From TrEMBL:
Keyword Endoplasmic reticulum: no
Name recorded for this polypeptide: Signaling modulator of AmpD, AmpE
Keyword annotations of the record: Membrane, Transmembrane, Transmembrane helix
GO cellular component, one term: plasma membrane
Xref: InterPro entries: Beta-lactamase_Reg
Length: 295
């Protein structure tokens, strides 16, 4: 049933994303809203944020355990389906990427920048950024957003159930939406621990879902490097797995100068296709685990 519940939630969530519906980020912001004010000098404390994530996760683990003991496990799958719909999802990306690609195809890099600047980290929003850097920053953000809102949830749901999936996604939400900005770097370090294994598993999946030969050349020293964050691992693995210089704008401009205006949309499509194929690989992997009786 784990595979059936996840697969149904993933398919429904994709439909919701296309219509920009049911944003899980809004739910997290409401859940964290009461922490908007704090005493002076205590803005960096992280315990109350962790409590807001860990306690519900433990409750979910306890409910699942009790239901399994008393033979009510099947009755919880509808609840898990609804929770997965909230934990997964990246609504709003489709219109943003469409507007960006259209601006790039017109050669209007300033307009392309204005479409995406709000979704990038604050340290990457400088107006002097080059088109190459702009596109790589967006590509990295897209990879991480899809990873944390789909693959991360899927990994911990299969490994430890809905409780661990809630905890992992909650740590990412604390990093992004906790009202006290001074505490967010601390949450980011904790979320990095939850991301470490699934990010590298997805990086390995890129090799199966993309160009294996190119992936093998670029992935050396990446998978087991403890100092690399999830975004660095994913962007380097995706660069090796994609053909046609989809994540190498400088090289693409040298090889195909006449097609430069098509690069933005073509590159983003290649990334989305790679992520879709990777999810299919994960679904097949989960199915094999179910058949083997592991899950």
């Amino acid at each position: 049933m784990v595979l059936v519940v996840f697969l149904c939630a993933w398919l429904v969530r994709r439909r919701l994303d296309l219509s920009d519906s049911l944003s899980g980020d809004r739910v997290w912001r409401v859940w964290f809203r009461s922490a908007r004010s704090s005493e002076a000098g205590r803005e960096v404390e992280i315990r109350w944020g962790l409590v807001r994530v860990i306690v519900p996760a433990l409750l979910l683990v306890g409910v699942v355990w009790a239901a399994s003991i008393y033979g009510w496990r099947m009755s919880l799958y509808p609840l898990e389906f609804l929770l997965l719909l909230l934990l997964m999802g990246a609504p709003g990306w489709k219109p943003l990427l469409r507007a960006y690609s259209e601006a790039w195809s017109r050669g209007d890099m300033q307009a392309a920048w204005h479409h995406i600047q709000d979704c990038l980290p604050a340290d990457e929003r400088g107006q002097a950024i080059s088109p190459d850097e702009m596109h790589l920053a967006l590509s990295k953000k897209l990879l991480v957003a899809v990873f944390e809102r789909f693959f991360l949830v899927a990994f911990w749901y299969v490994v430890g159930g809905i409780g661990l999936a809630f905890l992992a996604r909650g740590l990412v939400a604390l990093r992004e939406h906790w009202p006290q900005a001074a505490a967010r770097p601390h949450y980011a370090r904790i979320a990095g621990l939850a991301n470490w294994i699934p990010a590298r598993l997805l990086a390995c999946t890129f090799g199966l879902a993309g160009d294996l030969a190119g992936w093998l050349k670029d992935v050396r020293g990446v998978l087991f490097a403890s100092g690399l964050a999830a975004d660095q691992v994913l962007i380097r693995a995706a660069n090796g797995a994609l053909t046609g210089y989809a994540l190498d704008p400088a090289r693409f401009a040298q090889v195909h100068p006449d097609e430069w205006t098509a690069f933005g949309g073509r590159s983003l499509k290649a990334i989305r296709d790679l992520l879709n194929r990777s999810m299919l690989v994960w679904v097949c992997g989960i199915a094999l685990l179910v058949i083997a009786g592991v899950v």
